[in-house]
TrEMBL record:
Disulfide bonds join 27-60, 37-50. Keywords: Disulfide bond, Electron transport, Membrane, Mitochondrion, Mitochondrion inner membrane, Respiratory chain, Transport. It comes from Drosophila kikkawai (Fruit fly). This is NADH dehydrogenase [ubiquinone] iron-sulfur protein 5. The keyword Electron transport applies.
Amino acid sequence: MSLTPFLRLPLTDLTGCLINHQTYDKCGKFEMKMMECFEAYGLERGKRECADLISDFQECVGMQKQLMRFHAMRNERYKQWLKGERKGSEFFAEPPRVDAY
């Protein structure tokens, strides 16, 4: 994971702060904790010391575990449908009511 640009110019210094996750409610706090840890330990040592914060931030952004869980549930429903344990109308759960939010 590289945090520095390949070619460092004054233009990259001006525009580097435009791409971050601080504007999103979901991953902004994870990014801030990770960057504070990097600031405390430096980049090279921070990769070791902040590994748990880095993995939390990457999971928040990439949602790998959530997608793996979704695919596992979908595959299980499909297997049940192939075996005849589920009907076509029961393949997916009923959606919540419109005003349930």
